[in-house]
Design goal:
Blueprint: E1 2-10, E2 15-24, E3 29-33, H1 40-48, E4 55-60, E5 75-78, H2 90-100, H3 105-118, H4 134-145, E6 152-155, H5 164-179, E7 183-188, H6 191-194, E8 200-205, E9 208-213, H7 215-222, E10 227-231, H8 235-244, E11 248-253, E12 256-260, H9 267-276, E13 283-288, H10 290-300
Parallel strand pairs: 3-7, 3-8, 5-6, 6-7
Antiparallel strand pairs: 1-2, 1-4, 8-9, 10-12, 10-13, 11-12
Bound molecules: adenosine-5'-diphosphate and magnesium ion.
The site of adenosine-5'-diphosphate has 11 residues, from helix 1.
Length: 302
């Protein structure tokens, strides 16, 4: 388990992190979410040892990396800023990092090519890193973290700035890492970016955790209802099906049902209930997004 306990960090004029505590278990995907300047990067850098906190501690499988820095080897890190040198070529850069990890030359080359391939960088293999666009450089930083298997991954905004195809790919990759048993801590300033994949969220505002829990708990916190409109050729029986399961039917026609979901349901959980029951879905919209409401309420301090 990755444990963050009472973390505090002050820069000259800013209390960037003020008593942040949370955990990331094996197989979990925890989203660290909050607006720009909330303290996400400072928290993640403290975990991987790039920032020395003023107070609090980090435990990686019960080991304090400040005492035993070798434990950091089980952490993979994706930095937020394009922290990569400009001059090396993409695949050479990956290969050297793999080599420095202690792999043989051949193994390093093989892993570098595999990671590049995984992030769609093969065609950019001979580009200078500095010549990559922002999104491509982000993919390079992700590829770098995947050069070897790690028990925990700390990813700082790995999704922001990617094009839609790669948003989906990177999300799927994160889910796969967790399935294989790794714990993943992933930050974002956009809750919706992570909504489909996280097991839990830690919401941080001005250096303090203002909420942590599952998305279900977050939407309960909002108290708002999710209203969805589903287009289906068998809308009439779909309406009956949903009514039996506690949904309030707001409107219905032979091709459309509009329902209010019970508390705690999210648009994606509703869609999976409907699809698993075998209903054909031709359109799906939601008119109120309670998670986002809850998030905004939290980060605005309302
Ligand atoms: N090296 C630094 N020197 C001074 N202030 C910093 C430094 N790094 C971050 N800060 C400040 O700390 C606060 C938290 O920043 P950061 O951890 O980067 O937040 P986030 O990643 O959530 O946007 C911000 O107010 C930021 O300006
Ligand atoms: Mg940041």
């Amino acid at each position: 388990m990755l444990v963050v306990e009472g973390l505090e960090k002050r820069y000259r004029y800013v209390r960037a992190v003020r008593g942040v505590s949370f955990t990331v278990g094996e197989g979990e995907i925890v989203g660290l979410v909050g607006p720009n300047g909330a303290g996400k990067t400072t928290t993640l850098k403290s975990i991987v040892g790039l920032v020395v906190p003023d107070k609090g501690r980090i435990l990686v499988d019960d080991v304090d990396p400040q005492r035993d820095p070798g434990i950091r080897r089980i952490l993979g890190y994706v930095p937020e800023a394009p922290e990569a040198p400009r001059w090396p070529r993409v695949c050479d850069f990956l290969e050297k990092l793999a080599y420095l990890e202690g792999m043989s030359k051949n193994e390093a080359r093989r892993r570098a090519r595999a990671s590049a391939e995984e992030l769609g960088l093969t065609e950019y293999c001979n580009y200078k890193v500095g010549a990559l666009s922002k999104g491509l450089r982000k993919r390079l930083l992700i590829a770098q973290s995947l050069l070897r298997e790690r028990k925990y991954y700390v990813m700082d905004e790995p999704i922001s700035g990617l094009d839609p195809e790669w948003v989906a790919e990177v999300r799927a990759k994160i889910v796969a890492l967790a399935r294989e048993g790794s714990g993943v801590l992933v930050s974002s300033h956009i809750l919706r970016e992570l909504e489909e994949i996280v097991t839990r969220v830690v919401i941080i505002r001005r250096g303090e955790v203002v909420f942590q829990g599952s998305l279900k708990e977050l939407s309960e916190y909002a108290g708002g209802k999710t209203i969805v409109t589903i287009r289906s050729p068998n809308a009439t029986s779909l309406a009956r099906f949903l009514a039996e399961r506690g949904y309030t039917i707001l409107a219905t026609s032979p091709s459309m049902v509009k329902v209010e979901a019970p508390e705690g349901e999210t648009p994606s959980s509703i869609l999976s209930v409907v699809e698993e029951a075998g209903f054909k879905v031709e359109g799906f919209e939601y008119s109120k997004y309670s998670l986002e409401d809850a998030y905004l309420r939290l980060v605005r301090g309302g």
